[in-house]
């Protein structure tokens, strides 16, 4: 991209995005109003069609306009960033370079300002049998290969409103069916989601779609399995996992989805056992959302907690983010915060070695009148 220097191209509306993108998005939307995601009517048997025309429900949406606009801005940033990332996520790139470019582009487009707007969680770029929560730590020399299956999972937040969306990058067509299985399963989940819908029913429908696929890789046929201990989740301000889980297999709990909730609907299809466990070096951490004041003995742990509070609050972070803001020799203090239950480590989640996992994820909003797939783009 060195040759394509950042030219600010003029268009009728004034500014146009550069290549690579550097122009903050609010400058491209002069009215400060960001585009809606994909709108879907509620179609469920519990007959929510009346909602579309209900004056009361429409009024409720007018009152939430600012919140909707914040999360739509985050979604528009996500779309622009992934469009750019797809031009550089090619075999041969260092994973650390890929993440750095993705994250710096996010920071520029959302105009990162403390906890008000920025990155919502570390860039997941888990490869092959690693399903989630892998990002390079400093000094990691992993290179993206032609035969890798990479789950690119990144998040953007504006005023704590989080977009969490992911897709699978692969270069070898032998993985097409596996990726298609995850994509279709996620679309099923989005279609089934709705106000008063039981989460277990969404999980059952997802599993049915995912497991209708089988894939042939290098002459061997595998059934595609849902990773049964991975789920989607509700999202709240500054809280990526807000308490409700969207299962991707049958037999989940009968809790219902409710009006006004945000959900990350995500599915993971695997050629392995369809069960993940924690493995490999940890990179992801997050302060526990409801932790009160915990007295700390170690001065360094106290100081590190202050850094975490100021820079990340209850948003997830990784070791590279600590390095970037000038922290060093913090591992003992970080371990202490984890041992005290203040910070939670989130190690990589892996299926069996030699297997491949694909993922697809969207953030949806159950508006009073209809469902909005906030992170939908031309790509997925």
TrEMBL record:
Reaction equations catalysed: Release of N-terminal amino acids, preferentially methionine, from peptides and arylamides
Name the UniProt record assigns to this protein: Methionine aminopeptidase
Main subcellular localisation: cytoplasm
Root EC class: hydrolase
Cofactor notes: Binds 2 divalent metal cations per subunit. Has a high-affinity and a low affinity metal-binding site. The true nature of the physiological cofactor is under debate. The enzyme is active with cobalt, zinc, manganese or divalent iron ions.
Listed Gene3D superfamilies: Creatinase/methionine aminopeptidase superfamily, Winged helix-like DNA-binding domain superfamily/Winged helix DNA-binding domain
Residue stretches making up the Peptidase M24 domain: 71-267
Function comment: Cotranslationally removes the N-terminal methionine from nascent proteins. The N-terminal methionine is often cleaved when the second residue in the primary sequence is small and uncharged (Met-Ala-, Cys, Gly, Pro, Ser, Thr, or Val).
